[in-house]
């Protein structure tokens, strides 16, 4: 077994503290990487500090982190894609069955047997819990390790492994490009990357925000226009404007105004993890609108996204903190005090 040093919560709601634990020995197709940076996602916050009735004590001790960037330090005997020193990254899944319809189609994130999560999952081979990237080393099969393109800032790349791929997949699925108008609802970790990606794809990009104070931020990120969604008159003026709207807000809210804002036979894709959805059925039915969902992405999509970001010099906008301040990062994330994603420096 390989010894790793990480930051773990020993029980639901506990602070993250240094914890020494074991990684598996390298299997023939495994890659070991030294973690240099790890993004902090709302999923990490939800796992470590679950709401009442959502606790899962069987997952603890828990090392979070599924936006991982580092460099290869060792490879298994059958590894062909990597060698020591290669810059790499790992996202939120590290294995899947490989034989179901979704896996065969390249959508490993929708594996019928459920994919193995980067942390809080069960190893498909021998059963131990996976532990995440808030640690100095990670081990994964080479198929689920991605090469970090040269020139991409490692800290800014980390959130691409979650926020980046989550927004990239619907943009590609609905073939966003020049001549289209894309709306992005919300300006957080997902939303700010969605604005950058949609703009780089050549679309007209419009941001929706509840706060007039965020309008300038959206424009600086590349949005062509900003609509304050609490302004009823401004929202009414959006009717039939959009080819695609990505809703990144992680709380329940009325989707009806955004469905109304779609053009005929167009799509609203909900990306925020909401407990339930609220919308007027008429807003969905009139104009043959579609309400869709998406989540993460498969291996080929992730590699395509990274190559696209490299070609356009695009990364997430991040605030980097030393890993010793991980609890501060979680506190501030819970308070919404971040522009736009925290990344932990594991070398500091």
Structural class, from helix and strand content? alpha/beta
**Discrete helix count:** 11
Shape by Cα distribution: globular
Order of helices and strands: EEEHEEEHEEEHHEHEHEHEHEHEHEHE
In terms of DSSP E residues, the strand content is: 25-35%
Instruction: Report the uncertain regions.
Output: none
Give the fraction of residues assigned to helices. Answer: 10-25%
Q: Between the first and last Cα atoms, what is the distance in angstroms? A: 25 Å
Radius of gyration: 20 Å
Number of strands: 17
Mean pLDDT, to the nearest integer, reads: 96
Profile the largest sheet: 7 strands, mixed
Task: Please outline what is shown here.
The protein is built from eleven helices and 17 strands. With 348 residues, the chain is an alpha/beta fold.
């Amino acid at each position: 077994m390989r010894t790793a040093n990480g930051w773990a919560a020993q029980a639901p709601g506990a602070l993250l503290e240094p914890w020494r634990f074991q990684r598996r020995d390298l299997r023939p197709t495994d890659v070991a990487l030294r973690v240099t940076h790890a993004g902090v996602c709302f999923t990490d916050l939800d796992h470590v500090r679950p709401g009442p009735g959502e606790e899962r004590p069987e997952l603890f001790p828990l090392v979070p982190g599924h936006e991982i960037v580092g460099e290869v330090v060792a490879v298994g005997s059958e590894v062909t894609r990597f060698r020591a020193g290669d810059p790499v990254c790992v996202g939120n899944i590290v294995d899947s069955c490989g034989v179901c319809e979704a896996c065969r189609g390249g959508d490993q994130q929708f594996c019928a047997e459920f994919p193995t999560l980067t942390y809080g999952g069960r190893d498909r081979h021998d059963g131990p819990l996976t532990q995440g990237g808030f640690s100095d080393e990670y081990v994964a099969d080479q198929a689920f390790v991605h090469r970090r393109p040269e020139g991409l800032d490692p800290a800014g790349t980390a959130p691409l492994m979650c926020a980046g791929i989550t927004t990239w997949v619907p943009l590609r699925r609905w073939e966003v490009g020049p001549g289209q108008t894309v709306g992005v609802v919300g300006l957080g970790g997902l939303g700010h990357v969605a604005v950058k990606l949609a703009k780089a794809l050549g679309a007209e990009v419009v941001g929706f925000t509840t706060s007039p104070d965020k309008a300038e931020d959206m424009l600086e990120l590349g949005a062509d226009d900003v609509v304050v969604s609490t302004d009823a008159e401004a929202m009414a003026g959006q009717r039939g404007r959009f080819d695609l709207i990505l809703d990144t807000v992680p709380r329940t809210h009325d989707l009806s105004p955004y469905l109304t804002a779609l053009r005929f036979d167009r799509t609203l894709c909900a990306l925020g993890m909401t407990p339930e959805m609220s919308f007027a059925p008429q807003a969905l039915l009139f104009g043959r609108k579609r309400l869709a969902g998406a989540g993460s992405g498969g291996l080929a999509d992730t590699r395509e996204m990274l190559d696209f970001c490299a070609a356009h010099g695009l990364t997430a906008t991040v605030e980097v903190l030393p890993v010793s301040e991980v609890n501060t990062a979680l506190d501030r994330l819970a308070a919404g005090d971040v522009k736009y994603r925290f990344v932990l420096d594991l070398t500091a």
